[in-house]
């Protein structure tokens, strides 16, 4: 078989790894040989400074991961107890959703003290132990940083609400009502809405003004036009950076600023020219005055400069800023990285790819091409799942092939260029389990929005460690019910099954960390007219090319990977990973895939 390679100059350096390393075991979909106490490490190219560039980040919802004291709520010591599991999975960093003291109205996203740990989760000493123990396993801890709002029980807001002339008054967004008089509160200043339903303005009888809250009433928005707010957060960042955190994930960053003109937002119309109505029964607004205003960029430049003060070439290396960046297009995403001389986020989330929410080959291809070609030298952060959205089964599954589809999604997650972020439990195929009765709902938006919006409990159920009554999560009563499917979907069962989702995740992560094309290679789409199978090639200077094909349909497919402008000719393929039951293709021009099948192979 004749073949050419566009870029490859030598494969000598990789041959050793390929033939004496873990590849034989990976081929055929077997569990890679990750020995207890070891982890797949990135190659020498990933220095301490740029550890995050081809990294694997694992999101933990601490309330639901592991309870260590029997109160039914997960905690920091529980996470520390599970670090070996995360090391063996190949995780480089853990993003912890908020563990600060909080009244827990929004389960931690309503913070009442930014420099402590909520007693439900432990103590600062427990936190320091977690950072230290994680560090021993080369895992960094990334904190959630909520700068858009505080809890209404935070001292700043208590002060602010106490009188109109309190020094903290202008730390929040206070405004008179429309038509307000000495005796009449009028109506809210404009039509702005809370993301969690209804007006974003809350009347305060004591000081007779409205305050703005983009999220719950108990989450008043901070006023970022006030420089003291900036200083307060720089100080908070330093507090945690000194404790050795690997960085921060910035919550709701696009809603930091509101337009001082205070004009109404536009109403989004449906195709019949009628206002679109959201799950809470409110007209859908266009977000033009409250979302993605340019002021957030200088703020993030300040936060990045603060974070960079702590960079060192010893663990934890460069501190990393991750953004919760739901944005309309790739151009807006690019801005989040900031100018070269005034950087902002290293890793703003590319939600363009992961939240397409349907298996549409053309849409995925186009968004992955965007990530490859429109972000300059920046690293995409690919993410499909988190604690705010139904899990993968509910957004991508068809109810019949959910497991196979989860393999498809995880392949895109780990085999695309960039850093991969995933949500606890995805690695064992945990499913969304929403409450069935309004009376059981814990997340307040599920109460406001029932039955259209059932809230986020369904994706926050306890981690399923084993088949025991509470799935090994707690010895007490779990704060959310443990799904009945934990009898079969759990870590212990997955560890015993070479074809499990867990084995699949480990294989993909090992490939990502050890295969030179995956570590550094560009993404080049193949077979680009195909609407049923998404195929791409990873190619790095001096390394064998690797092709990836994922079938987005329930029918078997045969693809020809030479059918594109990539310059590939029919060649032999060496299988690196394939769906259980998949076949080894004879040649690059005839790759056969089963229903929702995945194939990864090296061009020989
Ligand atoms: C985004 C967080 O992910 C979500 O859980 C939270 O409710 C809102 N921001 C408000 O902080």
Quick overview of this protein structure:
25% of the residues lie in helices and 14% in strands. With 604 residues, it is α/β, with parallel strands linked by helices. It has 2 domains: 50-149 and 228-267 and 289-505, TIM Barrel; 150-223 and 268-288, Oligo-1,6-glucosidase, domain 2 (Alpha-Beta Complex), CATH 3.90.400.
User: How many structurally independent domains?
Assistant: 2
Unreliable runs: 1-37, 42-46
Largest sheet: 8 strands, parallel, barrel
- Cα-atom radius of gyration: 25 Å
Query: Ligands in the structure?
Result: 1-deoxynojirimycin
Assembly level: single chain
In total, the number of strands is: 18
Helix content: 10-25%
Mean pLDDT: 92
Q: Could you tell me the CATH topology label of the largest domain.
A: TIM Barrel
The assigned structural class equals alpha/beta
How many DSSP H or I helices? Answer: 17
CATH superfamily of the largest domain: Glycosidases
Bin the strand percentage. Answer: 5-15%
Using the coordinates above, name the CATH class of the largest domain: Alpha Beta
Tell me which CATH architecture of the largest domain applies here: Alpha-Beta Barrel
